[in-house]
Amino acid sequence: MSSHTAHTELKLIGKLILEGDLICETGLHIGAGKGSLEIGGADNPVIKDAFGRPYVPGSSLRGKLRALLEQSSGMAVPAELVYLSRRRGQEVRIHQSDRPGDVICLLFGRNPGRMDRVSGEPIEATNASPARLTVCDAPLDSESITPQMRENLDDELTEVKSENAIDRITSQANPRTLERVPAGARFRLRMVLDVFCPEDRGLLARLIEGLRLLEDDALGGGGSRGSGRVRFANFRMRWRGRGFYATGAAETELAAGADLAGLQALTSQADFEDKLAE
């Protein structure tokens, strides 16, 4: 929990701009849904932009970070989870509380209203919280797909991984194919963390924690079968105080070419939060 209270006043102090590389250590599959199936194509295609290039949706990365932080904070338990959808077979449960200092709700936002808990009485949320974290769609750096890689791909930018599900009684194989962005591909990452009050300055540390957790987890589909291992590198972090937007004041560069360990060391410095001034 943070030091936020129900009386914390919100007024934009500035924005932290975090840009870097998301690098695929193994093939990455973020699905496009069944609506984009093509004759002769993979059973499970990856999502692509209007130019046919794979990308990482900001919603996918943001949702994964939220899930990992909920788990690491002990919030992924029935008494802390609410239903976003109760449709049978398609239930969606996330953490939400009405506590002013709930870091998950501060980072990712919270709407007021009544929601059904997975276990216990419904929650009647009265504390609306604007989301501090914005995660942009991450476009593919096409130059990361080298000519040597292209020679071994099934498509210009993607590979097709074949898998089999084995019936435990008859041993019959049920083949399926999974389109993936290949290992070595690089996506350009951009995230913005809004700082609305002095108490928000500590949220950056939790965001970095989520990114570090993701490096030892998986992004997208097929993670338990080897897909979706990623790492982050080459971070540039800048601070744009309110004066940057109001009067054209200069931004402050806080880090360049850093990895997550470097960012974590920076945020743990005693004077770091003093650098985030209006």
General description of the model:
- The structure is a single chain.
- With 278 residues, this protein is of the alpha+beta class.
- The protein has a domain at 14-56 and 130-269.
- It has helices spanning 58-72, 103-108, 147-150, 203-215, 242-246, 260-267; strands spanning 14-24, 55-56, 81-85, 92-95, 113-115, 123-125, 133-135, 138-139, 159-166, 173-180, 186-195, 230-241, 252-258.
- β5 and β6 form a beta hairpin.
- The longest helix has 15 residues, at 58-72.
- The protein is globular and about 65 Å long.
- It starts with 13 loop residues before the first strand and ends in an 11-residue tail after the last helix.
Could you name the key traits of this structure?
single chain; 278 residues; alpha+beta; 5-stranded antiparallel sheet; two-stranded antiparallel sheet; 6 helices; 13 strands
